[in-house]
Amino acid sequence: VLVEALLVFAVVLSVHAAVWDRFSWCALALALQAFYVQFKWDRLLQLGGAVFQFRGAANSGLLPASMVMPLLGVVMKERCRAAGIVYFERFGIVVASTGMLLALFLSILAVGITKPVPTNTCILTGVAGSVIIYTMKHSLAVSEVIEVLEVLLIFVYLSMILLYLLPRCFTPGEALLVLGGVSFVLNQLIKRSLNVIEGRGDPIDFFLLVAVVGVVLLGLFFTVLFIFMDSGTWISSMFFHMMTAVLGLGVIMPWLYRLIQRNPLFWLLQFLFQTQTRLYLLVYWTFLAASACGVVFYQNAKRSSESKKHQASTITRKYFHFIVVATYVPGLIYDRQLLYVAAVLCLAVFIFLEYVRYFRIKPFGQTLRHLLSLFLDERDSGPLILTHIYLLLGMSLPVWLFPRSCAPKGTLPGAGALVPYSGVLAVGVGDTIASVFGSTLGEIKWPGTKKTFEGTMTAIFAQIIAVALILIFDSSVNLNSSYAWILASVSLVSLLEAYTTQIDNLLLPLYLQIMLMA
Length: 518
What we know:
Layout: H1 2-19, H2 22-47, H3 62-66, H4 68-83, H5 86-113, H6 119-137, H7 142-165, H8 172-194, H9 203-225, H10 234-260, H11 264-272, H12 276-305, H13 314-334, H14 336-358, H15 365-372, H16 387-400, H17 422-441, H18 453-473, H19 483-499, H20 504-517
């Protein structure tokens, strides 16, 4: 935990040194108080004193999760300020302020339910909170303050509902990261739906917002519904499919039509088949998807042919990482907008299939349960299987969160040019190589972990080679001699992979993106 905290502080200090403004000072104050409060959360989890049931075999992860949204907002603000885009500079300030307020709320919650009350931690949280609120008071307009408070309100209600319905699926840090992100997206969708006349935003951004909110609302609706009826019967399954069609065509489609001012289905078909390059990419991705399904069926056939209980090895699970890298790299090089939309569609399909598996919806629910149980690991301790969704999110978030409006030529200068590749480097290359080489050749273990020195060093080396290959094949990337910063960023994130107990597929790409944008 201490080494993980040191690595997070190294990232915070790096961003602070690069930006050096009032918000970077606030991020530093937030990191200090989150470090102390994290131990209170860990103690609550060990004693079973937390309000909800969180994922076991991991610490609370409050510090690394608390810093993601504030740091993303700070570096986005700085990039857009340098580009002279005032609207997105203010948007970055709102993102940073929202992240800080959500992290403070989770800290106050931990301090409030800890008995006896930790006096020193209370004082530190109070001081950090005062600094942050004072800065927000002098930096945000009234409408921006209201927006931040709306996200906090959505987060509180969403947390109470989902953490109760989905026990042992998240650590407190993962809940902050996932539910905080969903709350922010929901608030953005409401805000943009009300102000659609302004005409701000790209249709693909609206597509992402509506898809994320749509699948979350769909899940909440069926979770409440199936409390009162058995989801495994044919009648319930028919009702599930019928209501999915009704909500999709009767709510989500009209909502998207209002935002993009055209028929969503026609727009999507026109977008997907606009050029010959897109057609080639779609055929190639279909082949890779079929290959991934083939791996699943082959491993399950192998399990059924063995008498003892067979579980997929680490190396077998990393096949999917290789397939995902092969999927994303051509998209990043040839057509990032298509990759953006395809990743949104894939996320919606993944979450829908997880609903089918979780609720045992006929005819495929039980089959999916059987097929996917082979690939479970210790992080899938709750009722949901989320690791494959986290892998997709880890690869996609750097593409979705890339500030296109603040990059007039489609790319940021220096190390920022690698921002869309953060998921490929951190998860697709680094995490995969570390796992494969660490589990097969690793002998020297990092103190206090199961991860090996050999795995981490190989991961760093592999990511450097990957950066060199990106420079060769992607002509839009120009690093401008920022090689030392890239090496430091890759090394910090690889060390964080060795020491964190959080979902690395989600956390590592975001930290690498923050470092590269800084």
